[in-house]
Design a protein that fits this description.
Length: 391
């Protein structure tokens, strides 16, 4: 065999079914493509699932232990010898070996209690909650333990009884005659579906499943600095398994809504502030509301900041305020708040204002200026305009 499933799961060859299950869950939490950063996480997870599929199935595990390939269906049964007949219907190779060496019936009944699946819920956050963090109530609709039978599957006071068809073995056998003798084959009992017991009075609430669907609300702590696509892992908050089995895990996927004023760029926040032409020419100070103004947990002093507009400021001038951006999700500190000024030219003037501007233009010899074409390299003016207004 090219793969050692025991090595993939990290268990020894004598591991019990419970040890294999625990090893799988522990390993899956590390290599799941949604949480693992490795590029080959998907391949690792696929290989891990294959290993668990084999070792959790007594039949496939037996084939693997004997050196066979449990994932190759053609190796698990015969369709004939040399194309000349033999076994017309085919049968499980493990059943043949079991019959020859007296191991039939070793699989036994399967448990009604099984592990539940993981669940995923998507949550949209406003920008300030993603930046500063919050504890948010999340509505989840999953399978939970049946409140009436507590996962047992039967009406209160009733107990499962041994299946009369298979006598509690969970499987039934039949004998097939062949040229090498009688072959005993086994299959899950059709009456009890392999459980070895039947429930005479199934629970009216869950129909014997041991679980029901229910909507509930849980509190999820969202750390400061999260971004769209981040998933929060909550162990044991997913789907309860059949028979009231252990619950899977819950993944909360975050999506951050766009903001009308601020644009996020990594750990930085960007905004555009409009200033009148005269203020840009003469210089001034403007008060700007920060993102903290939308966060109830902020200090009053942090909800606005006074920003100096230097005399002669041009459209596209950017200044940066350190420590006013997004908290770093991994590590300390915050990014910066970038403020880009957009100088506004007045469009409505009265006679007095128009005369004053004419006087200013005359003083500066700008009544009939020649066009000054921008010849800068790089992204240029148009690149800046696109970047500014698309954000």
């Amino acid at each position: 065999m090219s793969k050692d499933y025991y090595d993939i799961l990290g268990v020894d060859r004598e591991a019990t079914a419970e040890q294999i299950k625990k090893a799988y869950r522990r390993r899956a939490m590390k290599v799941h493509p949604d949480v693992a950063p490795d590029e080959d996480a998907a391949d690792q997870f696929k290989e891990l699932n294959e290993a668990y599929e084999v070792l959790s199935d007594p039949n496939k595990r037996a084939i693997f232990d004997r050196g066979g390939d449990p994932m190759n269906q053609s190796a698990a049964g015969f369709s004939g010898f040399g194309g000349g007949g033999g076994f017309s219907g085919g049968f499980d190779f493990s059943n043949l070996v079991d019959a020859m060496f007296g191991a039939q019936g070793a699989r036994g009944p399967r448990s009604r209690v099984r592990q539940g699946q993981d669940a995923l819920v998507r949550v949209q956050l406003p920008l300030h909650e993603a930046v500063f963090g919050t504890t948010k109530p999340i509505k989840v609709d999953t399978a939970v333990v049946c409140p009436k039978c507590q996962g047992r599957g039967g009406e209160p006071g009733s107990e499962p009884v041994t299946c009369a068809t298979c006598n509690g073995n969970g499987e039934v056998s039949q004998i097939q005659r062949s040229f090498i003798g009688d072959i005993r084959t086994s299959q899950p009992c059709p009456n009890c579906r392999g459980y070895g017991t039947t429930i005479p009075r199934p629970c009216g609430e869950c129909s014997g499943e041991g679980r029901v669907r229910s909507a509930r609300t849980i509190s999820v702590r969202i750390p400061a600095g999260v971004s769209t696509g981040i998933r929060i892992h909550l162990e044991g908050q997913g789907e309860v398994g059949p028979g009231g089995g252990p619950a899977g895990d819950l993944y909360v996927e975050l999506h951050v809504a766009e903001h009308g004023t601020f644009r996020r760029d990594g750990d930085n926040l960007e905004m555009v502030v409009k200033v009148p032409m005269t203020a840009a020419a003469l210089g001034t100070t403007v008060n700007i509301s920060t993102l903290e103004a939308e966060w109830d947990g902020s200090d009053e002093a942090d909800r606005s900041v006074a920003v100096e507009v230097p005399a002669g400021t041009q459209s596209g001038t950017r200044i940066a305020l350190r420590g006013r951006g997004v908290p770093k999700l991994r590590g300390g500190g915050r990014g910066e708040l970038g403020i880009t000024f957009l100088v506004q030219t007045p469009t409505r003037l009265d006679d007095r204002q128009r005369e004053l501007l004419r006087e200013l233009a005359g003083e500066r010899d700008e009544m009939h200026p020649e066009a000054d074409v921008h010849r800068g390299g790089g992204k240029g003016v148009f690149g800046w305009l696109k970047e500014t207004f698309s954000g």
